[in-house]
Amino acid sequence: MSDFLIYLRLGYDHITDPGGYDHILFVIALCAVYRIQQWRQVLILVTAFTLGHSITLALATLRLIRYSTDLIELLIPVTILITAVSNFFFRDRSDRSAVPAVTQPWRYGLALAFGLIHGMGFSNYLRSLLGREADILSPLLAFNIGLELGQLLIVSFVLAVSYVLLSLARVAQLRWVLIVSGIVAGMAISLLLDNEYLATL
C-alpha cells in the first residue's frame, strides 16, 4: 500500500474512531437540524467546516503557527457544546406559530470558525505520525482527504437516521433536534469536566 493511501486511511480512521468521539459529536451537532432534503445546505455547512480545519491543519502541521495543545483540547468540547446549545433555538418551520429557524449564514460562520480549532486538534495526531519525515505535503493532503471521507460518512449516517425517523416514522423534527442536541451537549459537558487543563485553571 502506498504512503498516500496509508495516511488517507489514518485520517479516515482518526475521525471515525469511537474512542476519539469528540469530532464525531461536533459533526452530529452541526447537521442535526437538517433534513435529508436539505443536503445542499449541509454540504455548504460541511464545506465551511472543512475549509476551517484544512487551513489550521496545514499551518499547524507545517509548524507555521504555534498554540497550546492543552488549550485546544479544552476548546474542542466547548465548540461541541456551543453548537449543540445553538440547536436548542431551532424551531420546526412546519409549525406556523414557531419562531423561524436559526439563520443559515450564522451557522456557516460558526462551522468555519470552529473548524479552525478542530484543525489544530487534528494536527496533534498527524504530527505524531509524521515524526521527522521530510516530505509532509503528500501525507498532509492524504490525511485531510481521509478526514473528509470519514466526515461525509458521519453526515450521511445522521441524515439517513433523521430521514427514517422524520419522514417514515413521523417523529416531530423539533423533538429529534432537542434529543440529539441534548445528548451531544451532555457528552460535551462530560468531556469538559474530565479535561485536566480546565482543572488547573
UniProtKB/TrEMBL annotation:
Metal-binding keyword on record: no
Transmembrane segments: 43-65, 71-90, 110-130, 150-169, 176-193
Pfam families: HupE_UreJ_2
Keyword Heme in annotation: no
Keywords for the protein's UniProt record, in alphabetical order: Membrane, Transmembrane, Transmembrane helix
InterPro entries attached to this UniProt entry: Put_HupE_UreJ
Name this polypeptide is given: HupE/UreJ protein
